[in-house]
Amino acid sequence: MITKKQKQVLDFIADYPRRRGYAPSLDDIRKKFKLASVSTAHFHVSKLHDLGFLSKEENKPRAIKALDCETMGEIPLLGTSTVGQPIHGFKKQEKYHALPINKILCGDAVEVMKKFPPNSVDIVVTSPPYDAVRDYKGFSLDLHTVGKELFRVLRDGGVVAMVIQDQTKNFGKSLTSFRTIIDWCDNFGFKLFETVIYRKYGAEGAWWNKRFRVDHEYVPIFLKGERPQHFNKEHLKIPSKHAGKTMTVGGTRLTNGIRIDTRSIKINPTKCRGTIWEYLTAGDGSRLKHQHPATFPNQLPYDFISCFAPKNGIVLDPFVGSGTTTVAAKNLGYNYIGIDIAPEYCEIAKKRITEECVSESQNKLF
User: What is the DSSP string of 234-259?
Assistant: First the structure.
């Protein structure tokens, strides 16, 4: 067993090399936790080493290393402290020896992500099984716990792009999308960077007698940290309708209501796409892809990954389904992780990667 403070020290030692590229010193540990002296830091490190959580080389600076084959999980111990508070300890539990990149993992998304180190994923593109709108083999989930775990594994500056809609029942919307946005932002620290409207162009003939035809889904973009670590929307630009023309009476009204003088403005060949992204759904993707009951367009994850993922970034889809996100990540040259609780969907995702992804040698040509 180790104490709560030693667990915090262990997490700090494990995460430090991922951020800095080298191991922390005892003085780094002292400063991080505001310990009284370096000897106190040495005590915690020695204890963790003796229990098999750390390796270290004697008489060598920055030689402390967390052993990644195991992680910690909290368990309460019987008894109380002298001030009447319950004592908590920790025991070692199974963890991935290394982040399982370029894998499709079959299991409960939350439980699988708990085995990931914190701050290890750059972008999440996913669509959870919301509101029982489709048959997901009888599986359901709690979006609250999903948000908590995604915030933990996401790097600072990383984003979650989540395709979601609301079920209509008795002529009223469930509001799941709106509740989830507020929940994740209020309770976990996410910012709502933006909400994109995914405009669906499907087959004609979907007529509704009692309400409007639903031809959109929401894609809230959740941001962890102050600003995105990467943002490039060049590939998202669309042709300007009046490209090359000159607008002779272009004027702008400022936020204070004052209107500036009109001037000539030359219209650029392309313009920002904005927040309504249009995708064709009819005929999109392979027969293999559509063995899953709820898919999104192949191009959608390409657009989000290209915009928000840094070079050598890691892309996660915790509800990988037919594998559209992981196919896009691999074809773009990124590392990926896909998770799904249904074994048959995991097999579809794996097969699509084999059949629909370009080889590494081909990828280098792009």
Answer: GGG-EE-TTTT-EEEEE--B-TTSPB
